[in-house]
Amino acid sequence: MLIDVKNLYKIYNEGQESEVRALDGVSLEIDYGEFVAIIGASGSGKSTLMNILGCLDIPTYGDYHLDGVDVTALSDRQLAHIRNKKIGFIFQGFNLIPALNAWENVELPLIYQGVSMFRRAERVEEALERVNLADRARHKPTEMSGGQQQRVAIARAIATHPPIIMADEPTGALDSRTGKHVLEILHGLHDEGSTIILITHDNSIAATAQRVVRISDGRIVYDGDREGAGL
Amino acid sequence: MNLSQAFKIAAKSIAAKKGRSALTMLGVIIGLAAVIILVSYAQGQNEQMRAYYESLGTNVINIEASGPNSKSISDALYDYCLELDDLVLGVTPQIQMYNQTVVKYGAKTLDSYQSNWEESPQVVMGNQQYSLCNNYTIAKGRDLAYLDVENYSQVCVLGHKMAEMLFNYADPIGKTITINGYPFEVVGVFAQQDPQNMTGKDRNILVPYTMTRVLNSSNSWSAFVAKAKDGPSTNRAITLLDGFLKGLVGESGYYYVQTPNQWQEQGDEQIKMQQRFLGGIAAISLAVGGIGIMNIMLVTVTERTREIGIRKAIGAERRSIIAQFLIEACMICGIGGLFGIAVGYIGTLIVGKASFNLILFPSPGITAGAFLISVALGIGFGLYPAIKASGLQPVVALRAE
Ligand SMILES: Nc1ncnc2c1ncn2[C@@H]1O[C@H](COP(=O)(O)OP(=O)(O)OP(=O)(O)O)[C@@H](O)[C@H]1O
Ligand SMILES: [Mg+2]
Fold first, then answer.
1. A11 is a domain residue
2. Same domain, B35 and B83
3. Which residues contact A145 (CB under 8 A, 6 or more apart)?
4. Which terminal Cβ of chain B has fewer Cβ within 10 Å, N or C?
5. Would you call A126 exposed, middle or buried from its count of C-beta atoms within 10 A (0-12, 13-18, 19+)?
6. CB-based contact A40:A50 (threshold 8 Å)
7. The total number of structural domains that make up chain A
8. Strand order of the sheet with strand B88-93?
9. Is residue A154 part of a domain?
10. Is pTM beyond 0.90 here?
11. To test the ligand 1 pocket, which listed residue (A11, A18, A26, A46) has its Cβ within 8 A of the most ligand atoms?
C-alpha cells in the first residue's frame, strides 16, 4: 500500500469553545498507480487531509504510513526528503516564489535534490514544455496570468519525476479549456505510472478519476468508483 | 544540498530582490559610515586639543613681579629661583618685545606692524634655559649659551616658521639678520612646536635677555618662567615663591605666580567629557544604523516566512534554509559593511581636511568594532525570521500574514 491512513484527526483549538475538527477520524488506503479525486463542500477538510498526506502538516492524532514508513515518527529532515523526492505538491494558491522567474521556480526542487546543473536544465525545460510554458521561462510570477502561474506550479511539481502527485484544486482558477489541458497533463502522468491525488469542486473533472472520495465535515462519507458517487 | 548550492541559492535570491538587498546594504553603509565619521571627527578634535595643551608645557611656573624697584626685584627673584634647585630645573627671564619689530635678511623683510598675524615676527628675550622652560628643542645649530647672555652677544635662535620665512629652506646658521636695524647672528633653529600655528611659538626669535638694552626702550624685566621637576615640585615651588614674593614686593607691589598645569587639568577634563560625548554619539549612530537595518529585515518577515514555507514544501531541509539566509545576510551586510568603511574613510578625510586641515584617519579599532556590530546586527535580524520560520510546519509558514 502506498498510502495507509488510520483514524486521522486534525483538531484546531482543541478543548476550547472555538474547537474545529477539520479531520474527524479519517481512514484511507491508496495504492500505487491510482487516480483518486477528493471532493466535498468548501470547508469540509479536503485541503487539511491533502496537506497531511503531503507531509506539509502533522495530524493531531492518527497513523500515517507512506510506502510502508511511519511518517509520524520521521524527523524534520527525513520529511524534507520525502517532500522533495516522493511528492509533487500543487497548491490551491500556486505558492511560487515571487522574486524568482518561472525557470528558477521550477529549478528549485532540483537544486535541493542536488541534481547537477546540466541535468537541471534538461529537467526544467522538459517540465516547462510539458505545461506549454517554454516561452515564458524568464517571466516572474507577477508577469503571468493565473493559469500560467498554475502551470508553472505544475511544472515545479513534476520536474523531479515524483511517484506521487497531489494537486489541490489545480483547475480552480482556470477557464475550462486551460483546465482541460491541466487535467490532460495529470492523466498523462498517471498513464506513465504516477499516483495522482486530486482535489476538485468540479464534478466533470472528478468524473475522469477511477476512484472518488467524498468528504463532509471532516469525515469520509463515500469512497468508491465514480458511478457510485453519482457522477 | 551542499555549501555551493546554498551559495547559489543565496546569490540568486539577492539578485532577485535587488531593491530590498540595496536598501539593506544602504542601511549598513549609512550606519557604519556615520559611526566612523563622527567618532573620527571627535577624535581629531581631541587630538588637536591635547596638542594645544601639551604645547603649553607641563610643570611650568609663570612668575611676574613689579614694585618700586623692579631691577632689584628681578635680581632677587632670579637668585631665589636658583636656590630652589631641588625643585626647579631651570628659570629664565621671559620678555616679549611689544614695540614695532622689523626683521630683515637680504631682500626679505618682516614687519610686525605690516604683516598679518600669521606671519608677524615676535622677538622674545631669555637666557640659556629659555628653551628648557618653554619646551623648545634645537633642530639645527645650537641653543643660547651662558656666555651669550654674559657677553651681550648679538646672536639669536629662530623659531621654525621664522627660519622658513626668512631663509626659505636655505641653511640660516651663521647668517646675519637685522632686528630693528641691529645685526644678529643666527646660531640655531628650534624644532617645530606648533604646526597649526595656534600659539605663534614658531614665529619667535630668541635673543639673550641682556639685549633688552639694545632693543627695548626700557630695560626693566620682571617676568620669568621656571620649569619644575614634576607636579608636586611645581606646587611646592609655587608656595615658596608666593611667600618669597609677598615679602619682596611689599604693600605697594604686584606679583603673580601661576602654572598652566591647572589649565591642562581643565583641558584633560574637557577631553574626558568629549570622549564621553563621543561614546554617546557612537552609540546613537550605531543604534540609528541598527534600527534601520532591523527595520528592513523585519518588514520582510512575512514575505520571508512564506518563502521559507514554499522552500520547505518542495523539500528544503531546515539547515539549507538557514544556510541560505545566513549567506544572504553575510553577503549583503559584508558588502554593505565594506562600502560603509570606504564611505566612512572618505568622509573622515574630507571632514578632517575641512575642519582641522589634518589628514585624519579613523582608528582601526573603531572601524573594526563598528563593522562587526553593524554586520552582526544585519545578520542577526536577517537570520532571526529564518531560524523561526524554518522550524514551522510548511503549512503554518505558508499561512503567514
Ligand atoms: N489554522 C486553522 N485554524 C482553525 N481552523 C482551521 C485552520 N485551517 C483550517 N481550518 C478549518 O478547517 C476546516 C477545513 O478546512 P480546509 O481548508 O481543509 O477546507 P477545504 O475542504 O479545503 O475547503 P475549500 O474547498 O474551500 O478549499 C475549515 O472549517 C477551516 O475553517
Ligand atoms: Mg482547500
1. no
2. no
3. none
4. C
5. middle
6. no
7. 1
8. B88-93, B223-228, B60-66, B254-258
9. yes
10. no
11. A46
What ranges in chain A are assigned the alpha helix state H?
A: 46-53, 76-85, 102-113, 117-130, 146-158, 176-191, 203-206
pLDDT greater than 90 at residue A86 = yes
List all residues 6 or more positions away from B174 whose beta carbon is below 8 Å from its beta carbon: B185, B186
| Helices and strands, counts by H and E, chain B | 13, 13
> Position of cell 500505487?
A32
Least confident of A171-175, A192-196, A225-229, B123-127: A171-175
Q: What is the pLDDT of residue B40?
A: 85
Strands A35-40 and A195-199: parallel
Residues of B with CB under 8 A from a CB of A: 1-2, 5, 8-9, 12-13, 16-17, 303, 306-307, 309-320, 391, 393-396, 398
Predicted confidence at residue B299, as pLDDT, reads 74
Round the CA-based radius of gyration of chain A to a whole number and report it.
Answer: 17
Ligand 1 atom closest to residue A46's alpha carbon, by position in its atom list: 21
Note whether B34 and B128 are same-domain residues.
no
State the CATH number of the domain containing residue A152.
3.40.50.300
User: Tell me, what's the ipTM?
Assistant: 0.94
Q: Min CA distance, B358 vs chain A (Å)?
A: 48
**Nearest of A175, A167, A176, A156 to residue A103 by alpha carbon:** A156
Containing structural domain, residue B386: 3-52+265-399
Statement to judge: residues B124 and B197 lie in one domain: yes
Shared-domain flag, residues B45 and B194: no
Residue of chain A with shortest Cα separation from B21: A99
> For residue B179, which amino acid is it?
I
Q: How many helices (H) and strands (E) does chain A have?
A: 7, 10
Coil, strand or helix at A76? helix
Query: Which ligand sits closest to the CA of A45?
Result: 1
In the reported structure, the alpha carbon of residue B211 is separated from the centroid of ligand 1 by a whole-number distance in angstroms of: 106
- Condensed to tens digits (0 to 9), the pLDDT of residues B281-328 reads 777 877 777 777 777 777 777 778 899 999 999 999 998 888 888 888
Question: B90 and B215 in one domain?
Answer: yes
Ligand 1 pocket, residues with Cβ under 6 angstroms = A 12, 20, 22, 40, 42-48, 92
Greatest mean pLDDT among A15-19, A169-173, B63-67 lies in: A15-19
Q: A78: nearest CA in chain B? A: B317
- Candidates B383, B395, B393; CA nearest to B304 is B383
